[in-house]
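Please review the protein record below. Let me know how this chain folds according to its tokens.
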Amino acid sequence: MGINILGMGSYLPEQVLTNNDFKKFVDTSDEWIKTRTGICSRHMAGWEPTWYMGRQAALKAVEKSGIDPKEIGLVITSTITSDFLTPSIASIIQHEIGAENAAAFDLSAACSGFVYAVDTAKRFMQTDDNLKYVLVIATEALSRFIDYSDRSTCILFGDGSAAAVLEKSDKLYSSFLASDGGGARKLFARNMQQAPEVRIERDFDDGFPEKPMHQLFQDGKEVYKFAVKALPKAFRAAAEKINITTSDIDWFIPHQANIRIIETAAKNLGIGMEKFVVTVDHHGNTSSASIPLALCEAIDKGDIKRGQKIALIGFGAGLTYGSVILEY
């Protein structure tokens, strides 16, 4: 069993920050950022909650699909920047779009989140004959978790959301999901550790570097070394299951972390950049939203057409990685 992407929608916050805007609070420049990351601008959530951005993308996806939201049996939301510890964003969006018959839950796999969520949706549909449609949403507001005094990380991230309505299909499909938990300390943001009134010194070292609550920490060099290997490894693992090669793929849609990572991974796969969808220049790194945002944009532009084979490849905190190969 495979899946069909019935329709997609996206939402980007109103506020846009260019590289020059960062010169106001860190020692950087447009040239410095573009040369090292390929990023020129990114959208930043202002008044928009994470759930609201997901809602907007979901409504567009449902509209493009031409279905009644009451027919959706499951809502899966990928996010690492939820507005709440509980309830799930998926539950909020389920209500907001009128998917009253759907189960709903959030999934946390960082920048691999959309790949994980799509594969999870496929497995639910594979085992439940009554599950007609699954709505998968990736929505992130990373701007609220950034240390804006750290010029090596604050310039990387942006906000946004994208969603897809999936249905069962006999189309081509393969997947591979993995995690290297040994790298968990290379990219993280802490949650609340203890009640504010507790004043007991911690005598336990968990091995994670000290960082203010909720602020993202990234060991850029280590994450880069992981990513350039994980991207080709994830694709090859999924491709081998269905006996296809890079030449069979029309489009690669990788996580949009950094143009250098994408270029190096393309070289490691032995293919040219013309087969890669790249949106990092105007989206920045939007974590799990980056792959569906890039996919949605390429579909809307007419670059990706029905019948073409695409590879979605994620890698990120965890350290998670994975790939889904499917026919659009």
